[in-house]
Sequence to fold (330 residues):
Amino acid sequence: MLKVCVIGMGHIGNLHARIYRESKQAELVGVCDLLPDRAHAAAKTHGAKAYLDAAQMLAEVRPDIVSITTAGVENGSDHHRPTIQALEAGAHVLCEKPICNDIAKAEEMVGTARRLNRCMGVDFNHRFTPAARVAKRWQQEGRLGHLLFVNVSMWIMNRNETSPWFHLKSLHPHTVDLMRHFCGDVEAVHCFATKAPGRKIWSTATMSLRFKNGMVGTLAGSYDIERGHPMERCEVAGTGGRFVIDDMWREVTLYPAGNGEKSVYTNPVFGGIRDFDDTFRNRINTFVEQIAAGAKPDEIDGSGADGLAAQKVLDAAVRSVESGQVISLV
Ligand SMILES: NC(=O)c1ccc[n+]([C@@H]2O[C@H](COP(=O)([O-])OP(=O)(O)OC[C@H]3O[C@@H](n4cnc5c(N)ncnc54)[C@H](O)[C@@H]3O)[C@@H](O)[C@H]2O)c1
Fold:
């Protein structure tokens, strides 16, 4: 049984804790928050010991896995310190996205995991849905042929106005990771951004991307559209066919080139994903399974290095909006 701790007991930390509790390979032993009310409430809910200090918890419990579910500026600035603490205490770390918007600190997080030979994952739950896995299998079977282009869009409502770049840096780790998952590393970025009426931040944006493998892509995202309808679409096309993932887990369709007979995977009513929270279960369970199976750090699906690469693309997107230029990542 793998001993697990969670640091940062907001909604997302409690979600991680609940999923670890339900895992047959993990035992939730400690929960930590700087805020006593949150730490104690989580301890009561999940039947684990409460801590107000991560270093103390790590020293006492010596966990195998630690989830970092803190937030901070642009939803990521509070990830750095507890991640380093957990790695140095010998734990494997699953960190929420964005890994960290300070690129030097994100480098340090990934570098520390590498130096200490610990596994590090990022909660890129969008790439772990059954629909995304089916799409990946179709791609690996060569059913897309030579890869040509990708179109991804994602839109929700988020009225947070704390940083001009909050939308790009907090939402788009997911979309950029999905693009990298199917298309590989990004070579160049050009980003345009706009502000919805009444907003001070760059709350809607589009990006044009070129990938190292020669693919081209577009991304559209927004924090200005009320929830209730589909929120995400991912299309990848090649000479042999094209797939479209509709709404993260609901459906994926393969359109073979020159052939009217398409293939469709639809989320099942029984045993399927019921809501957004369920997508965390697929991601977290994969991390636990990989650690239990003795995966090597570079075998982690949705790794810290993937998290860092996504933030570098978003950092380039910010520089592109500021300068009006195409930003090269090579
Ligand atoms: N993967 C996804 O789809 C997804 C969805 C939503 C949010 N998130 C991410 O989840 C993270 C958490 O979101 P949230 O809404 O639960 O945040 P939150 O602000 O409600 O909770 C974070 C908690 O961390 C605590 N904290 C901060 N630093 C700490 C430290 N050093 N030690 C102990 N506790 C500390 C804070 O006191 C706070 O209670 C964010 O990074 C966010 O981007 C991911």
The pocket of nicotinamide-adenine-dinucleotide is lined by residues 7-13, 32-35, 38, 54, 69-71, 75-76, 78, 81-82, 96-97, 123, 125, 170 (CB under 6 Å). DSSP finds nine helices and 15 strands in the chain. The first strand starts at residue 2 and ends at 7. The CA atoms of residues 287 and 293 lie 10 Å apart.
